[in-house]
Amino acid sequence: MTPGTFGDAAAGASAPLIALDTVVLDTETTGLDVRQDRIVQIGAIRMHGADILETQVFDVIINPGIPIPAGSSRVHGLADADVSGRPNFAQVARELETFIGNRVVVGHSINFDLAMLRNEAHRHGVRWKEPRWLDIALMSVAITPGLVSPSLDNLALTYGIEIEGRHTALGDARATAAVYAAMQQRLIGKGVRTLGEAENLGWSAHALVAQQQGVGWFERPAGGPDFVHTAIEIGSKRAIDSFLYRQRLEDVMSSPPITVDAGASLHEAARLMADKGIGCVIVRQADGPHGILTERDVLRVLADRGPEAGATVVGTIMSSPVITAPGDTFLYRALGLMARRNLRYLGVRNEHGDLAGVFTLRTLLRERALSTLTVGDEIAAATRPRELARVRAALPSLASGLISDGLNAQAVGAVIAAEGRAMTARAAEIAEGELLAAGHGPPPADYALLVLGSGGRGESLLAADQDNALVIDDDYHGDLDSEEDWFSRFSMRVNEILDRAGVPYCRGGVMAKNRSWRRRHGEWLRQARIWATEPSRQGLANVDIFFDFAPAHVSSTKAAGLADSLRLECAHVARASPGMLRILSEDAAARYSPLGMFGRIRKDNGGRVDLKNGALLPIVSGARVVALRHEIPAHTTPERLRQAAAAARRSESVAALLADMHGFLMRLILTQQIADIEAGIKPGGTVDVSRLNRRDMERLRHALQHVGLVRNLVGDLLRET
Fold first, then answer.
1. Against a cut of 0.70, is the pTM above it?
2. What mean pLDDT is predicted for residues 166-172?
3. 291-294 and 324-326: which strand pairing?
4. 609-610 and 21-29 as β-strands: parallel, antiparallel, unpaired?
């Protein structure tokens, strides 16, 4: 047969376990010597996340080509007579290859089985490509200190699983699948959510790993990921057109929209479209929502009505209402929406909700653009947390591809933040639907679900947890303290969905499910005044998070006003509280600095530097303070710095320098996070500076020397103008 390729696993290290496609595999053999013994049976079953796909199984007996020892037969029950006339390994190899496909292989002491398969493939001339794998024995030892034995029997007993068909390949594969499904909740409890993290968890069972290596089952690859090159290569495996991720609808829309009255004739509308060289017109209605008339509509009516078509009234054939998206929607997300809804034209709304323009896309351009999308509109179609988890898992690859295409880190952070807001919005929609289906009814009052912190600023990195809050209309008279309250149930479910989707619960409790982050509009204003007049350390930490909010989901148009008015009123409170602003500025300037004596950069024991807390956050916090002082409407740190300096007519060169430093630090942290995720390491705010090139190292040293400029700039801009 033609040599085949096994286990071409496509899953990356960021793939979430709850949505991971796996094959749980086991073999029965003539003995335990992986070099000399042969396979007599292969059993496997597919899984998706924790779901065992009972009908998708592989079960085959193989003629090993050598006598089966009596001792081995007593274990698995297969003797020479049972394998006589059965196919050899080469004859089932292609079928096994197809069954495994791109899935990760899971097993109990799986490296024994993989070593057997590897050697059989070599023996029969079948090309072998190692799959990614997870070993439940290794993971169990790592998550259960003091485990008496990681045997399959003991693990099944631990998780309350009854084994049927013990020591048959398929029976053991089924038992292993059940153990793997049961242990996933414990893995999440240990903070292990991705394939890479699970792989690293297994490697941490050092004694058992050494035993497996000692008997020749495998060799662990030497070395770790290359810092910059690994990060760039991750994303460059697939071409990404960064134009789609840096432009928004408002940048490319046709504005103002060309319109006709609903009472106009088709002939008049077609003439207008021809004169303007456009493919659609917006149809105005005095007593209803606007509609849209497209080239396709014109052709359809002409085909149906012939010469009489020109007299057709436009209002009778238009499509209404016009499907729209906000002007600040990234193009990649707009294209995803258009693909899902099969649209060629999309209305664009301004910040007041009015139709401000139309975005059009010709078929050829649309096909070329969609082929470059790493993340499209999958979030809008998600119905379960694991579907959201797939989108989140794609973000490291997307970020890497955009960086390799030359997009600056601040723009990449905006894309990551946009996806975070979209995930939060979809979690809210799912939670609303579940409450309605369970008989709890629709929302009892208008509300806005807010994302806080970096997500609200549009500057997210890849290590974000949940920071969200709920603002509810003051007309609501329910008991927000009760667990039975609609908004209590809703918030709890939203946070649970996000956690399951890979956005972990906030360690500081900044989540809408907690009563202090779930308030009526008036309660939030009172809280803002308390923070302003009675500043405390915890209160200042809350200000740091809360004052950078953006609505992710609103229950109605009126609810959108809740967030807008809250922002304006809280800004007034902050501006009138110089004492709070002064303390915030002092706190920003007093943060830990990674730069020591003689310009040396301090490193921790792992050789890393905390650039997030020591350099990035002082700039972010300082920009927030001056934005509050001057009521700057900008969300992003660079724009806050520039606008505040321009408003005060001071320190514009320093503001520009700090904005540039902000982008540079984001790039270093983001690139390190991408490399860490690919290596199965939890991303954070630290960077291994030993892997930086000389140019970036010198630039970093220069940046750290000038972080102190934050104190000067903030002090300057806090003074009365």
1. yes
2. 93
3. unpaired
4. unpaired
Residues 166 and 279 in one domain: no
* Three-point CA angle 248, 252, 254, nearest 5°: 130
Asked if pLDDT for residue 233 goes beyond 80, the answer is: no
CATH value at residue 136: 3.30.420.10
Enclosing domain of residue 100: 17-222
**Paired tokens of 87:** 């196919």
Q: Phi, psi (5° rounding) for residue 203?
A: -60, -25
Based on the domain organization, do 146 and 258 belong to the same domain?
no
When mean pLDDT is compared over 41-55, 233-247, 339-353, the highest value belongs to 41-55
pLDDT tens by residue, 621-670: 989 988 888 888 899 999 999 998 888 777 688 888 899 999 999 999 99
Angle at 586 between CA 581 and CA 587, to 5 degrees: 95
219, 44 Cβ separation under 8 angstroms = no
My answer on whether 209 and 66 are in the same domain is: yes
Asked if residue 180 lies in contact with residue 155, where contact means CB atoms within 8 angstroms, the answer is no
State the total domains in the chain.
3
Long-range interactions of 63-68: CB distance < 8 A, separation 24+: 63/87, 63/88, 64/29, 64/30, 64/38, 64/39, 64/40, 64/88, 65/38, 66/30, 66/38, 68/30, 68/40
pLDDT of residue 230: 42
Q: What is the 3-state secondary structure (H, E, C) of 110-150?
A: HHHHHHHHHHHHHHCCCCCCCCCEEEHHHHHHHHCCCCCCC
Q: CB 157: neighbour CB atoms within 10 A? A: 13
Do the bridges between strand 447-451 and strand 355-360 make them parallel or antiparallel, or are there none, so unpaired?
A: unpaired
Q: Are residues 633 and 721 in the same domain?
A: yes
Q: What is the pLDDT of residue 669?
A: 96
585 assigned to some structural domain: yes
- Residue 178 and residue 65 share a domain: yes
Q: Could you tell me the two tokens for 401? A: 């591809």
Question: Mean of the pLDDT values across residues 40-69?
Answer: 96
- H-assigned helices in 501-546: 521-533, 537-546
157 plus 281 within the same structural domain: no
Assigned domain for 697 exists: yes
What is the pLDDT averaged over residues 666-676? 95
In this structure, the answer to whether residues 47 and 163 fall within a common structural domain is yes
Tell how strand 51-61 and strand 104-107 pair up. unpaired
Let me know: does 658 contact 676? Beta carbons within 8 Å. Answer: no
Residue 616 falls inside a structural domain: yes
Residue 513: inside a domain, yes or no?
Answer: no
Q: Are 163 and 177 contacting, i.e. CB atoms less than 8 angstroms apart?
A: no
